[in-house]
């Protein structure tokens, strides 16, 4: 199993699968940003009970600093048996011989029986701070333009979405525009045109919160573990 994207959804999914004994390749283009949040604090984050994020937030209470949270979360993930971290940028997905081949910007291809895209607001992400636009899904985190183009070439209809991050504790507000599959392209978590590919989190259509994204990751983990997510 390969999970592309190590934000909330990807990190939570990989952690749950690994706790159940699965080996998971968690791929991120920047491992230093693993589990990063949009806000610089976990105050009032509303992480659901039983999630990795809730456990880490509880362990550091009463501190709510986002950097402290990120550091502790990253350490928990790195210490979890079964999670294999890889810093790489996935650019293309090709299904062949009962597996998915993941092409990367760095060159060496990766292979997995199943792939979950948890790439957040990074499919053609464009971040706007005032009059400045950056090709990013979060501040200083580069967008997945090549992967978005590849999904389009595979016939996946992508539509525009937008999210807003309010100013918190001195951090400036910003907006991010990005792409998600049209609702008709997904059947649950499955991408209809790609039999071995699923999507979870903010990269799927609809409104999302920390709680909803982590809840979706938990539901997908349960689906994969009970066999409902396996190909016949």
Automatic annotation (TrEMBL):
Signal sequence range: none
GO molecular function: flavin adenine dinucleotide binding
GO cellular component: cytosol
Chain segments annotated as transmembrane: none
Gene3D superfamilies: FAD/NAD(P)-binding domain
Annotated MnmG N-terminal domain residues: 2-58, 61-155
SUPFAM superfamilies named among the record's database cross-references: FAD/NAD(P)-binding domain
Keyword vocabulary terms for this entry: FAD, Flavoprotein, NAD, tRNA processing
Cofactor requirements of the protein: FAD
Domain of life: Bacteria
BP terms from Gene Ontology: tRNA methylation; tRNA wobble uridine modification
Matching InterPro entries: FAD/NAD-bd_sf (IPR036188), MnmG-rel (IPR002218), MnmG_N (IPR040131)
Pfam families for the chain: GIDA
Subunit structure, interactors included: Homodimer. Heterotetramer of two MnmE and two MnmG subunits.
Protein name: Glucose-inhibited division protein A
Name of encoding gene: gidA
């Amino acid at each position: 199993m390969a999970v592309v994207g190590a934000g909330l959804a990807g990190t939570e999914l990989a952690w749950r699968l690994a706790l159940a004994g699965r080996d998971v390749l968690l791929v991120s283009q920047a491992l230093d940003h693993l589990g990063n949040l949009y806000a610089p604090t976990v105050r009032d984050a509303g992480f659901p009970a039983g999630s990795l994020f809730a456990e880490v937030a509880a362990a550091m209470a009463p501190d709510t600093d986002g950097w402290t949270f990120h550091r502790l979360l990253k350490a928990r993930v790195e210490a979890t048996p079964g999670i294999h971290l890889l810093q790489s940028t996935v650019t293309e997905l090709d299904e062949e011989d009962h597996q998915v081949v993941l092409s990367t910007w760095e060159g060496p291809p990766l292979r997995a029986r199943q792939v979950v895209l948890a790439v957040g607001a990074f499919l053609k992400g464009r971040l706007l701070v005032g009059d400045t636009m950056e090709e990013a899904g979060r501040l200083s985190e580069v967008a997945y333009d090549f992967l978005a183009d590849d999904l389009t070439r595979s016939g996946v209809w992508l539509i525009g979405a937008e999210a807003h991050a309010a100013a918190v504790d001195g951090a400036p507000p910003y907006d991010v525009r990005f792409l998600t599959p049209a609702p008709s392209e997904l059947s649950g978590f499955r991408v209809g045109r790609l039999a071995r590919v699923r999507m979870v989190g903010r990269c799927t259509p609809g409104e999302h919160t920390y709680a909803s994204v982590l809840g979706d990751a938990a539901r997908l983990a349960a689906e994969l573990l009970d066999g409902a997510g396996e190909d016949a």
